[in-house]
Write a structure and sequence with these properties.
SLC26A/SulP_dom, STAS_dom_sf, elongated, STAS domain-containing protein, 2 domains, 58% helix, three-stranded antiparallel sheet, transmembrane, 28 helices, 13 strands, 710 residues, Transcription Regulator spoIIAA, membrane, alpha+beta
């Protein structure tokens, strides 16, 4: 190791100053020039490759060549319902029955409404509710998720159906971003070929299911870790605006052109305001009555009703909401049928619903390559929404959910359902909340709901053919309240961190203006940019001794944290890697007044006070607190050592404290001991203690030298 001369700067002849903070330390310390003398490491060996090989062998043995015992465990893992069914108590059955009927009542209007949102026949929404609930009850690990159609996924499905069913013409194209086009439909919002639309939606569901199964097989559930809560909030709020926009024409009874692609929401509102004079008054009246009834029921009647029924022992721990959505569609259907609203007043109705199930039909293989991009997006968004709900309620009720098995369950729901005219499904926040409040204990409630839905599909569904679309649009709009209220998150997040607020705002605006697929990409890119920005320009801190203790805090933040005379304590609060290593060096050298161009101590600068210049010249020791440096890569290590050499060249004595062993290994492999002179200490307090002894020794030597000269 290279040594340094014992001479210090001219202002280092005293340890303390009458107007400055004195070093005050007690206790033993550890300070050595070698890391191995500070700590006594075991014979550490990097076994990453061998461990990975063992894990692969173990996986192949357990999954591909399972023993009889492992086979039973694998069956239980694949069919989680066997676990809760074995432990099922008959006392739970009444709660699950009540919960199942309550959820089924919600699924009827929501399923039909979200099917229309996806530009599909209303009956397909009931198919989605039935098959997804049934399949998830067998394969899912959450006991409380309510699967079926939801607004966000239905809107994304509807965009795909629109894009592939409308005809692009030169007169209707509006050039926009990324060489794509905003396309308007030549029809009045109606689907020209419902069977082709169903083929598109079912093929999309099948492709989504395949993507989810592949994510499960390769254990890639971690991809949703890149979707932060801020991103999800902004994205779902943006999609809620798009869903609301899509329902406005049905609420006003307008027949408008449909737009697909970037800026479609702008063109849609231009079209709406241009045609407001054509509003169907009867349709608007139906919408107003439905919305008012729903709002009054949810905001005022429901809390009063729940409070009253709690007096009954049966409902003491069960909260069953008023099924106002079902009441709306029943009353709307009866009034529409008796007054013939469609024939007399041109009120748009659901029309043909039919009875029973469609004949099973496979996906269109030729469409799958076209739908792959949309399928990947929907698969990731579905998993993010479902897993956030599943983890929330699993934590609340103290049980575990398996992310990879959840992916298998979602994939099975979409693949099997696609053969029966189902579009992509996901877990609903509103229905899951009702599921929990209604006392649901297990997925037995979903099986009860499926039984109820089966009766509706086979016998009763066709009775709703006279139902006005305005009723379903009103139900969807009111159901969006929770998502729209997420706009408050922007203010809440902004109070905590401005960068996260930028992520929310950019995700929200890009989703609303550019459409859901671009919104997803923009949101992820901005989120990653914020992460990189925080690493690219991390915080740097100058520490001071806190209230004469062994604690060290930011000197500028706390009035009772004082910088120690002749010592600069520098902390870099990030990993040192190739793209921020130069910032580390510049921040370190600048903190002690070294000119970055010349590598020498800066002369008096008119912009700097005399006290600051004097402070820079009086510094003799540099402590680098490495406690926040969790990684040093090759490029970062080289620049780190270069900065230490520059400090040595300016006659500073350098200490590294709280250096992690793997970072020390990197620096040693880069020959830090040969390139520069540093002292490694176990703790920051040890470094300060060693400096105290060093300064005292130098001070005594100078006094002795002065006395000798006299």
């Amino acid at each position: 190791m290279l040594g340094l001369p014992d001479e210090q700067n001219e202002n280092s002849d005293t340890i303390t100053n009458n107007n400055s903070h004195n070093i005050n330390i007690d206790g033993q310390f550890t300070a050595e020039k070698s890391f191995d003398h500070v700590f006594f490491p075991t014979a550490y060996e990097d076994r990453t490759s061998s461990l990975l090989f063992r894990q692969i062998c173990s996986y192949v043995q357990n999954k591909c060549l399972p023993s009889k015992k492992c086979g039973i465990s694998y069956i239980k893992l694949l069919f989680p319902f066997l676990s809760w069914l074995k432990a099922y108590k008959l006392t739970w059955l009444p709660n699950d029955i009540v919960c199942g009927i309550t959820v089924a009542i919600m699924q009827i209007p929501q399923g039909m409404g979200y099917a229309l949102l996806a530009n599909l026949p209303a009956i397909t929404g009931l198919y989605v509710s039935f098959f997804s609930s049934l399949i998830y009850a067998l394969f899912g690990t959450s006991r409380h998720l309510s699967m079926g159609a939801i607004a966000v996924i239905s809107l994304m499905t509807g965009n795909v159906v629109n894009r592939l069913t409308v005809k692009e013409t030169l007169t209707t194209m509006v050039p926009s971003l990324l060489n794509k086009s905003t396309i308007e439909s030549a029809s009045n919002g109606a689907i020209i070929d419902p069977s082709y639309a169903i083929t598109i939606a079912t093929t999309l569901a099948f492709t989504v299911g395949i993507v989810q199964l592949l994510l499960s097989i390769f254990h890639l559930g971690f991809v949703t870790s890149f979707l932060s809560d801020t991103f999800v909030s902004g994205y779902t709020c943006g999609t809620a605006i798009l869903v609301f926009t899509s329902q406005v024409p049905d609420i006003f009874g307008l027949s408008l052109k449909r737009y697909v692609g970037p800026f479609n929401v702008i063109y849609t509102y231009i079209e709406i305001f241009s045609n407001l004079k054509k509003t169907n008054i009867i349709t608007l009246l139906v919408s107003a009555c439905s919305i008012i009834a729903l709002v009054l029921a949810k905001e005022y009647l429901d809390p009063f009703y729940k409070k009253k029924i709690k007096k009954f022992k049966l409902f003491k721990n069960v909260q069953i909401p008023i099924p106002m959505e079902l009441i709306i569609i029943i009353i709307g259907t009866i009034v529409s049928y008796l007054l013939d609203l469609n024939g007399n007043y041109k009120v748009k109705i659901v029309n043909t619903i039919g009875r029973g199930f469609r004949k099973p039909q496979g996906p269109s293989v030729t469409l799958m390559p076209t739908l792959m991009k949309d399928a990947v997006i929907i698969a990731i968004v579905t998993f993010a929404i479902c897993m956030s709900l599943a983890k929330t309620y699993a934590k609340k009720f103290k049980y575990m959910v398996n992310s990879n098995q959840e992916l298998t369950a979602y994939g099975a729901c979409n693949i099997i359902g696609s053969f029966f005219a189902s579009f992509p499904s996901a877990a609903s926040l509103s229905r899951t909340s009702v599921y929990v409040n209604a006392g649901g204990r297990t997925q037995m409630a979903s099986l009860v709901a499926c039984s109820f839905l089966l009766i509706i599909i086979l016998r009763i569904g066709s009775l709703f053919e006279s139902l006005p679309k305005a009723c379903l649009a009103s139900i969807i709009v009111v159901a969006l309240k929770g998502l729209l209220l997420q706009m408050k998150d922007f203010y809440t997040i902004g109070r905590v961190t401005k960068l996260e607020a930028v992520v929310w705002l950019m995700t929200f605006l890009s989703t609303v203006i550019l459409d859901v697929d671009y919104g997803l990409f923009v949101g992820i890119i901005v989120s990653l940019f914020v992460v990189i920005l925080r690493q690219f320009r991390p915080r740097t801190t100058i520490l001071g001794q806190y209230d004469r203790s062994n604690a060290y805090k930011k000197a500028r933040r706390f009035s009772n944290a004082f910088e120690i005379p002749h010592v600069k304590i520098f902390r870099f609060e990030s990993a040192i890697i190739y793209f921020n290593a130069d910032f580390f060096r510049e921040s370190l050298l600048d903190s002690i007044g070294i000119d970055l161009k010349t590598g020498q101590q800066r002369k008096n600068n008119p912009q700097e006070s005399n006290d600051m210049c004097l402070s820079f010249r009086s510094i003799t020791h540099i402590i680098i607190d490495c406690s926040s440096i969790n990684q040093i890569d090759y490029s970062g290590g080289k620049i780190f050592i270069q900065a230490l050499k520059e400090l040595n060249g300016c006659q500073y004595k350098v200490y590294l404290c709280q250096l992690r062993y793997y970072n020390y290994d990197v620096l040693q492999k880069l020959q830090m001991d040969k390139e520069c002179s540093v002292i490694v200490t176990a703790t920051l307090h040890d470094a300060v203690h060693d400096i105290q002894d060093d300064l005292r020794e130098n001070h005594n030597n100078k006094l002795l030298l002065a006395n000798t000269e006299l």
